[in-house]
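Work Package 4 report. The design task specified in the project plan requires that, given a folded chain encoded as C-alpha cells, an amino acid be chosen for each position. We show below one input record used in the internal validation round.
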C-alpha cells in the first residue's frame, strides 16, 4: 500500500472509525481494516452490532494494499498532524509496519494480523427510503437527550423510529421524560425500528452540510444507512432490537383533554429556568424548581437552604382561571427547551402530579414537530 490523502479528511474519517468501535453496544473491536480498490480508499470498522464502511475517492493511490491496524494508535498519531497531505505506505524493509509521513514528521505502526469485522452486504432488502439529511440528523440529535443511561432496561437505550405515510418519527424515553419528534417526508412505507442510541449517534456524525444523500435500507435484522457526497460514501449497518418498544402514546394522552394550556416564549422561559436552576446546584438534596401559574404570568421559584431566586415569564392563551403550582427537576425542563428551535411553545398540564407536555409551534411545513413529556417532582408546600 502506498497512498497520499488530505490530512484533514483522513483525520475525520479515522475519528469516525474510532467512534464506531468505541460506542458500539457490545464487542468493541480496536482493529480496523484499510484497503484500496481501484481509485478508492476503504475503511472498515465497528463490531458485532454496528459496522461502518467508509469509501474515500479524493486521494492518490500509487500502490494497492490491504492492512489491519489499531484505530486507537492510528488516531492518536494522526490527530496531532495538520490538514496537509499525509503519505501512508508499507515499510519496504518490513511488510508488517505502516509508515506515516507528513512533511518532516515520520511515524511507524505495527500492523495487526487480522480483523473480525464482516463487510456490509446489502442483501434481502425489504425497502429503501431516501431521507432529507438535515431532517434525519436533527431528529436523531433532538431526541437523544431522553435516552436512558441505565442498562437495566435495554430497550430504553434505543431510539424508536416510526415510518408512516409521509411521516418519520423518532422517540426516546428514560422513565423521567419522553420526547417524540416527527417530520413530514415523502414516504409510502410503514415500519417500526428500534436502534441503540449510540449507533444512531454514530450515524448522525456521518452527516454534515456536504451530505447530498441519505438512504435508509431495511432487512430482517439490520438498518443499513448510506450517506453520500461528492468524494465520500459511508455505509453503516446497525442491529435492530428484537424487543418491542413501550406503548408511549398513551403516556402523552389526548392534549385536548388537558385543563391547562399556556403559550410561552421559549427563550424567555429557557433563560429564566437556567438562571434559577443555579440555586439547586448548591445543595445535595433533591433539586427542583416550582412553577406557579397565574392569569398572565408564570412565576418560577428556586429555593434551597443556602439561597433562593425567583423569576417570571409572560404567558399567552391561558385556559385556566385559578392558580396552579407544579415542581420539576430543572435539568429535564432545560433539556426539552434546548432541543426546540421555535420561538414559542405550548405547555399542557393536567395536575401537579401528572406529566407536563411541551410542544413546539412549527413555523414552516418542513419544521420538526416536538412532543416532550416531563414528569413533575413531589414538593413540600
Amino acid at each position: 500500500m502506498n497512498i497520499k490523502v488530505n490530512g484533514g479528511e483522513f483525520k475525520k474519517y479515522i475519528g469516525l472509525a474510532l467512534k464506531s468501535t468505541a460506542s458500539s453496544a457490545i464487542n468493541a473491536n480496536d482493529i480496523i481494516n484499510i484497503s484500496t480498490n481501484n481509485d478508492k480508499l476503504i475503511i472498515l470498522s465497528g463490531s458485532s452490532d454496528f459496522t461502518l464502511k467508509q469509501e474515500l475517492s479524493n486521494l492518490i493511490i500509487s500502490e494497492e494494499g490491504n492492512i489491519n491496524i489499531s484505530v486507537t494508535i492510528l488516531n492518536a498519531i494522526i490527530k496531532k498532524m495538520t490538514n496537509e497531505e499525509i503519505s501512508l505506505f508499507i515499510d519496504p524493509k518490513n511488510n508488517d509496519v505502516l509508515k506515516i509521513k507528513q512533511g518532516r514528521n515520520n511515524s511507524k505502526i505495527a500492523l495487526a494480523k487480522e480483523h473480525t469485522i464482516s463487510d456490509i452486504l446489502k442483501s434481502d432488502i425489504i425497502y429503501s427510503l431516501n431521507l432529507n439529511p438535515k431532517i434525519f440528523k436533527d431528529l436523531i440529535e433532538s431526541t437523544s437527550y431522553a435516552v436512558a443511561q441505565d442498562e437495566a432496561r435495554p430497550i430504553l437505550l434505543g431510539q424508536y423510529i416510526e415510518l408512516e405515510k409521509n411521516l418519520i418519527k423518532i422517540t426516546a424515553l428514560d422513565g423521567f421524560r419522553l420526547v417524540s419528534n416527527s417530520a413530514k417526508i415523502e414516504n409510502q412505507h410503514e415500519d417500526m425500528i428500534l436502534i441503540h442510541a449510540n449507533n444512531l449517534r454514530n450515524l448522525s456524525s456521518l452527516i454534515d452540510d456536504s451530505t447530498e444523500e441519505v438512504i435508509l435500507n431495511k432487512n430482517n435484522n439490520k438498518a443499513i444507512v448510506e450517506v453520500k457526497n461528492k468524494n465520500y460514501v459511508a455505509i453503516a449497518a446497525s442491529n435492530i432490537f428484537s424487543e418491542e418498544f413501550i406503548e408511549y402514546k398513551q403516556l402523552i394522552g389526548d392534549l385536548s383533554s388537558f385543563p391547562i394550556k399556556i403559550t410561552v416564549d421559549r427563550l424567555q422561559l429557557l433563560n429564566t429556568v437556567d438562571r434559577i436552576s443555579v440555586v439547586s446546584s448548591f445543595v445535595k438534596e433533591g433539586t427542583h424548581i416550582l412553577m406557579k401559574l397565574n392569569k398572565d404570568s408564570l412565576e418560577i421559584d428556586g429555593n434551597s437552604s443556602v439561597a433562593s431566586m425567583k423569576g417570571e415569564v409572560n404567558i399567552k392563551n391561558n385556559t385556566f382561571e385559578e392558580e396552579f403550582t407544579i415542581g420539576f427537576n430543572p435539568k429535564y425542563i432545560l433539556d426539552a427547551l434546548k432541543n426546540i428551535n421555535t420561538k414559542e411553545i405550548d405547555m399542557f398540564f393536567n395536575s401537579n402530579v401528572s406529566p407536563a407536555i411541551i410542544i413546539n409551534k412549527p413555523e414552516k411545513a418542513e419544521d420538526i414537530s416536538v412532543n416532550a413529556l416531563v414528569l413533575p417532582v413531589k414538593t413540600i408546600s
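The longest helix spans residues 7-22. Validation will be extended to a larger panel in the next phase.
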